[in-house]
Structure formats: structure tokens, C-alpha cells
Amino acid sequence: MRITRSLTIGFCLLAALAMAGAFSWNRAADGDAAFAPRVPVRDGCTVIMVGKNASTDGSVMTTHTCDCGHCDWTWRFVPAADHAPGSMRKIFHVNQFADWDPRLGLKWDRVKENLAGLEIPEVPHTFAYLLGSFGYMNDQQVAIGESTVGCRRKMENQTPSAKFDITALTMIAMERARTAREAVRIMGELAERHGYGFTDTGEMLAVADPDEVWVFEIMPVGALWTPASKKPGAVWCAQRVPDDHVCVCPNESRIGEIDLGNADDFMASPNVVSYAVDQGFHDPKSGAPFNWKKAYNPNDASAASTFGSSGRLWRFLDLVAPSRKFKPETKNEDLPFSIKPEKKYSVYDIMMMTRDKYEGTPYYPGRGVQGGPFENPNRLPYGFQVDGKKYSTARMISVNRAEYVTVTQSRGFLSNPVGGLVWLAFGAQDTSCFMPFYAGITGIPLSFEIGDHYVFDRQSARWAFDYVDFHTQAVYSLAKEDVREAQEAWEKSAIERAPLIDRFADELYRKDPAQAARFLTEYCVNNANRVVDRWWQLGDELLVKYNKLWIYDAKTRKRNPMKYPDWWLRLLVEYNKLQPRSEEKK
Q: Shortest CA distance to 129 belongs to which of 189, 177, 61?
């Protein structure tokens, strides 16, 4: 009776907080055409990591900006499952850089046809988890964020001998790992035994649980590797981020000198040093200590030398420890692995950090001619070439080609289904909205499972955010204020009510786990549906307000001219050789 009453109170709370919305989730989509991914275009991702003593609430946090611009953005909820003795788990390849024509079937419904030619023994029970381009969080609060770091060209192995790519590894880790350390070991040992690479080169994963977060880096060992060699089919290393530190991976190797005698802070494959020596990447006779990134992923770039295109590492360190005055001229490989921040960070702080665009620095791309009259920082994201010369432009933490962005929280002071949170924002950080999904949910909105870059679809959640983004670009400095107002309303309200949801769900879970899962699922799905609806409405509002580059005020029903900055008008006069109007005679 008490459980029923608590559940009723909870659903009343849910109704008051999230209101009613379309409630639909996981379904399978059938397709008859052959599985056919498009040719990939490689891009990079930014990952921020926060130790439990560097956060305001004791949570361990990771982020992932899935930067691609054309890759598949769809998500799935993978339920927990029990498996009979002797069951086998088929391994299949997942090209993280590809997308799929929806007419051929949705990615996660057809990808299993791309078998790697390997089966491994199944475990008795696999955990539930949220799946995007990678596994992001399971019901044990193990969380992952990904960043491609690359490797030396001779290390690449795109042959069928490499049975695992990075997505497949994260999926197995989500299914089997109870802790971050366990996830690292599982992925490392599988890659050693069965080979790593195929569609992927060097990769970094932030692997977290409620107690700690690890930087896990893995690389192939060349196209000549075969299992018959009895040698490891991958080389990998992992370093723990200190509990009171923060760390970032901006598509470059972050692990430097390693201490394999310190098992609390380091893990590695048995060939971590010997492979580098064999390949001539490290000379033990030199007397220099072995340095992982200098051996396998050397990088002499800096923020200054690339005019900001390799500046995310410097920018992050400058944001979290401004008094240290890190110089943009310092080579990235000489900057510290992690750092104790000058303040503790909340989940909202980290969300806002994912939206950073170098504001206030010489690399801010919204300034001057590049940004235009309305300071749009999203132009020329890859640099440009003119008159036979190439020019770099800043590569920011926040890029408008993002498929989605995640912020994960692993919180040891709550039960696993309630303590784990994935905050998901579809599309570009500056115009999207973070929505909470608890580790204990049993489904996601159907609108998260569908959509494609090349076909506009009002049933796809992602298109709601792209709709807003498109209507923001023309008058960016003006429209972003409208977007920011909506972001603050929906993100801050979700963050502010989280402790109330946490307490009720945690108490309910201890009494009836199934009812707690239902409560959390309905809360998350209804909130997400309302956010998506609001973003469709916001896109309509922006279209009306800034239509034809005027300002239409719906409240006063007046149309006002768009104001342009004087500096831009002066450039217009100079470039177009305009002449002022003659004074009219009175």
C-alpha cells in the first residue's frame, strides 16, 4: 500500500514537473534493402573530464562533442539481458564516421549485418545502456566519452584481421563493466586478443564511474598483424585523472610519461613500450624516459602556431586555471595531462564550457570580417585558401557541425539507476538544449531514433534543433539571445528539479525497482518531448522575428529596421566605393 501511494505521489510530481506529452520509445524499424554506409569524412571530438573532488556535488563528469557534420546521429536504448550458458556474442563492425540512407534501414537496425567474423563467449547478464555513436552510460553508472587522436601511419590496420573498432569496444564495455577500471581492462584485453582498428586509428576514451575517471588510449599495431603472431593486436595505455583535477582531450594524445609500477594510476598493454622500441618510435639507449604520446602520437603544434586550430587544450587550461597564465605558444604536448581547477564545477558550468568559442581571445572567430556584422563565429570552420595560400581558422570547443553533445554524471551517493545521468543535446552546442536521461530508464523517445542529414523530418528530434540553428545563423548575435533565454529556462529548470527527482526515485528504487524505472522513464521522455516541441516553436518564432532581415515585434505588431555596426558599414563604404548622399537644400 505504501509503495502504491508513493508511486501515485511520484506520478503527480511528474505531471506537475514535466506535464503530459507524447510518450513513445524504442521500436524496431524493418528494412529490406542492403546495408550500405556512405564514405566517411573524419572529424574530431572534444572530451572534458571532471574528478569527483573537482565537481560541486561530488559527481564524476565526462563530456563528448560528437563532431562530424554528416554522420548518423540516431540513438538507441539497449536493454539488459540474461543469456543461457554457452551463448555466444557476435561482433560486428560499426563505422563511426559513416551515415546511412534511411531508405536502406536505420543504422542500429542494419549494422548487425556487417559482421566482423568473430564470436566471443557471452556473459550470463549484460547491462542496459544508452547507445549513440558509442556506448555512453550503462545501468552501473559506467560512462564513456570519445575523441579520435590518430596514430603514426604505419600503425594503422584497416584489414579484416582487426575484429574490433572503437564503437564495438564501447558496446562490450557497456554490456559487461561494473566499474571504469573493469571497462578499461575488458576493452584492452579484447583488442589485444582479437585485433583493433578496421575503420579506426588511434582513439581516446574517457571512462568514468562514481569514483574515478580514466583516460584510455588505444591504437592499432599495423596491417601485418594476425592472431597467429601470438602478439597483442593493439597497444593501449590508461591514466587516471586525479580526483581533484580536470582534464581535456581535444583530438590529440594526452598521456605522457607512464609509471607501470603505479597500478592505482596506470594500466597498459604488455607491449606498451616494446612495440615502440621495435618500431623505432622510442630508443631506450637515449636515456630519455618512455613517453606514450611522443612515441605514438607526437604533436609539435600549439594554439599560436596554428592560429587557434589546435588551441582547445590551451583554451581549456586557461579557462580552469587562469592565474597560471598558460601561454598559447607552448606546444600542446608540453602542457599538463590534468590540472587542479581554481574552482569546482557544476554540471551547468560544464555544459556552458562545451559552448565556448574563444570569446575574449585573439582566436575568437566571431570578430571582424570573419564574423560579419552579427558576430557569427561559425563561418570558415576548416580554414580557407585564396591566391594560392592556405589560412587556418580557430577550431573551437563548440563547433556547429556537432551531431550531438553529452555530459555524463556518475554519482556515488545515489543508487546506480538514479545516480547515473546522461545530459544529451542534439546538434550544435550554442543552439541546442541539454536533456536529462537517467541510467535506470527503459526507453527513449522514438524521435531520437530517426533522422538523416539529407531529408528534413519533423518526426526527428534532431531536426528541431537544426531548425533553430538555421534561423540563428543569419543574425547570430541577436538570435542567440533568444536561444540562450530558452536554454536557460529549460536547462536550469531541469537541473534545479533534479535533486527532487533524485530523492523520490532513489527511495522508490529501494522499494520497487521496476516502478522506479517506470517513473524515471516517463519523466525523461516527457521532458525531452516538451523540449523538442519548444524548439520547433522557437524556430518558428525566430523565422517570424527576423524575417527578411528586419525585426518583427509580435507584441507591438511593429516592424523595425535591422541595425548594423558602424565598423561594418565603413568597410562596406570602402569596399563598394560608395559615395555619401549630397545634402538636400532647405
A: 177
| Total count of domains within the chain | 1
Residue 49: CA count within 13 A, CB half-sphere: 35
Q: Where are the alpha helices (DSSP H) in 420-492?
A: 461-473, 476-487
User: Which amino acid is residue 477, in one-letter code?
Assistant: S
Amino acid 103: pLDDT: 82
pLDDT at 16: 47
pLDDT of residue 10: 52
**H-run or E-run covering 48:** strand 47-50
HSE value, Cβ hemisphere, 13 Å, CA-based, for 143: 36
**Does residue 527 sit within a domain?**
no
Q: Is 236 inside any structural domain?
A: yes
Contact between 554 and 544 under an 8 Å Cβ cutoff? The reply is: yes
Residue 158 has φ and ψ, to the nearest 5°, of -100, 20
Q: Which amino acid is at 422?
A: V
Q: What angle do CA 496, 144, 211 make, to 5 degrees?
A: 70
Q: pLDDT (tens digit, 9 = 90+) per residue, 28-61?
A: 333 333 333 333 334 579 999 999 999 999 999 9
**pLDDT beneath 70: ranges in the chain:** 1-43, 584-586
Compute the CA torsion angle 536, 540, 546, 551 (nearest 10 deg).
-120
Task: Return the SS3 of 446.
Answer: helix
CB 422 within 8 A of CB 410: no
Assigned domain for 466 exists: no
Which residues span the domain enclosing 360? Answer: 31-413
Q: For CA atoms 117, 121, 125, 126, give the dihedral sign.
A: negative
Structure confidence at residue 151 (pLDDT): 97
Give pLDDT, residue 585: 65
Cell numbers placing 259: 609509471
Q: Give the separation between CA 157 and CA 97, rounded to whole angstroms.
A: 16
**Contact by Cβ (8 Å): 184, 212:** no
Apex 51 CA angle, 49 and 54, nearest 5: 110
For residue 107, what pLDDT is reported?
86
- Smallest CA-to-CA distance from 356 within 42, 71, 44, 46 is with 46
The 3-state DSSP class for residue 145 equals strand
Q: Is residue 311 part of a domain?
A: yes
Strand ranges inside 300-451, DSSP E: 384-386, 389-391, 402-410, 421-426, 435-438
pTM of the model: 0.92
| 296 alpha carbon, distance to own chain's centre | 24
Listed in sequence order, the residues at least 6 apart from 1 whose beta carbon sits closer than 8 Å to its beta carbon are none
Contact between 168 and 118 (Cβ < 8 Å): no
